[in-house]
Amino acid sequence: MQCPHCHSHISSHSKHCKRCGGAIPSGQHLLEECGLTEPATAVSRTTTAASPRAPAVRYRFARLGDRFIAFALDIALLFGLFAIVDAWAFMRWGTFDAAELQLTTASLVIAVTLNSAILFLYGCLMEAACGATLGKILVGIRVVRTTQSGALAACALRNLLRIVDGLAFYLVGTAVAACSEARQRIGDICGHTAVIEETFGIAARLTAIVLWIVTLSGAAWAVPRICSATNPAHTRYLSQVVVRIGTTGSSAYFRIGGFTLDVR
Are residues 206 and 117 in the same domain? Predict the structure, then answer.
């Protein structure tokens, strides 16, 4: 690894350069391994003499706060897609009787399966193709590989391990990233990826904003229409009603198994 200040060769885990004494940014070796540093040959003697401590790193690891905002924007977008899928599954494999919606085991299994597939494919395909989801584009961060592994495989593993990182409302992933020098959660470590700051062009940001707004607006338009069209499909399996949602007089209720929640 090279020192970002004087460009002398140092150990990949050195904290300070033995030649110039400059502090080595955490995760510098990962940035160099994935080709995200300026080449040392591009720095002339004149430039080095004029500014011996000018940093050569072009990218920085994304802050956890920025990653959280990007995740929140993506979840808001996905919520629109989930609403469409769930409304279709509930009305197709559930039953709506008077003022009560009855959700069967089949409707819940299908809704959870489709939601999980959408969440995984959205993150995997967007990051593999563009390096960023719509939320990441809006915030200004992107995913890079720290090895020469395939982009699709790395992003697939990274998103699959959200199952582990997402435990306790993403407390596990946040704790691991906070302790990592490259701010990597478990999915990043196993998938050999890192999230860095990036500057996207105006066209990319405008496209992301338009797609984000269109998706949520489309969901707001489609869900009421899906719910108004009742065409239930009966199945021999998983037809037991497990959730009941309805109204009685001036109150609403939510029942699952032996648990009942009344809202007045």
Answer: yes
Partner residues linked to 141 by β-bridges = 197
State whether the Cα torsion 249-252-253-254 is positive or negative: positive
Q: Of 99, 134, 76, 133, which is closest to residue 245 (Cα–Cα)?
A: 99
Look at residue 2 and give its three-state secondary structure. strand
Widest distance between CA atoms in the chain = 83
The residue segments making up the domain with residue 194 are 64-88+112-230
Look at the chain and count its residues: 264
Residues 221-262: pLDDT tens digits? 999 999 888 777 777 788 888 998 988 877 888 899 788 888
Q: Alpha-carbon distance 143 to 195, whole Å?
A: 4
**Would you tell me how many other CB atoms lie within 10 Å of the CB of residue 258?**
5
- The whole model's pTM is what? 0.78
CA distance 245 to 120: 29
* C-beta neighbour count of 178 within 10 angstroms: 10
pLDDT digits (tens, 9 = 90+) for 66-78: 999 999 999 999 9
Contact 165, 186 (CB under 8 A): yes
Q: How far apart are alpha carbons 178 and 194 in whole angstroms?
A: 13
Is residue 252 a part of any domain in this protein? no
